[in-house]
Amino acid sequence: MPANEDLIRVTAFIYRKPGISEAEFHHYWAEIHGPKMLELSVKYGVVEYRQYHTTPQAKAMLDAATKATGKECHACDGTAEMFVKDIKAYLSMTADREFVEAIVPDQLRFMDLDRLEFTVGYEYGVIAGSERVTEHTRRY
Hints:
Layout: E1 8-14, H1 22-36, H2 38-43, E2 46-53, H3 56-60, H4 63-69, E3 78-84, H5 87-95, H6 97-107, E4 117-122, E5 127-128, E6 131-132
Antiparallel strand pairs: 1-3, 1-4, 2-3, 5-6
Pfam families: EthD
Protein name: EthD domain-containing protein
Family: Belongs to the tpcK family.
């Protein structure tokens, strides 16, 4: 069974704030903002926090495939994933005074919060280590 199947995954599609370069956005998110999330993440039991940086170079990797299908790579500048055991803990974290007074203003330095989008759900492993996954936490 894949390691994260029993966890809830909250994914945020993040767009950079107008007026900052892609390089500034990726640097700030990775090196400044990311570490600021540590204390609250520990306090509220976040199991993992991951960032996926969708740089122009990363988007270019899919150019041939997306053009062949007439589709485009998602326009976001990156995604953030938080794995939690309980959605209430995640919601409590985002309502915490420190999050509201410190994290949100920091997000405003580099993110376009008006365009922020979320998904929430569970992982379902299909292939791991070149093998089909047959044991699961839940069935669909």
